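Q: Give me the 3D complex with DQA.
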Amino acid sequence: MSKPIYVLSGPNLNLLGVREPEIYGHQTLDDVKRLCEARAAALGRSVVFRQSNHEGELIDWIQEARTEASAVVINPAGYGHTSVAILDALKAVGVPVIECHLSNPASREAFRRKTYVSLAATGLVSGFGAASYELAVEAAAGLTRPA
Ligand code: DQA
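A: Here is the predicted complex, encoded as structure tokens.
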């Protein structure tokens, strides 16, 4: 059995469903978790799904993924635009990284157009709401298909 795909979500994503639903949709983070688990299971894979509002906790999980995960899907939320420390952790993770956003930051305010995480990511899925996570899990599974 291959190692799980870590699906990590950053600050304020615990408020999904009530936070700016016109941008981020009406589905909750629990709904997104179920979608990721179902997509992974359909592909014979599993996910570890976690969210934190704290930069250091996200970094601890990325470091854990070095030995415990086959790939990392990360929606860094606001930290994507600010955190060199998360970028450094991702650069050291040694497994494929897929960046994921519910909205399309490139079509929003100028400060969202730059994400540090992209510098460490194999690819980026954004703009499809909760489906961005499912597509990112699928991409991660494809990149790490057992031989
Ligand atoms: C987000 C986009 C970020 O710009 C924002 O700070 C978020 C959510 C997204 O999923 O669309 O918190 O990562």
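A quick observation: The CA atoms of residues 98 and 139 lie 8 Å apart.
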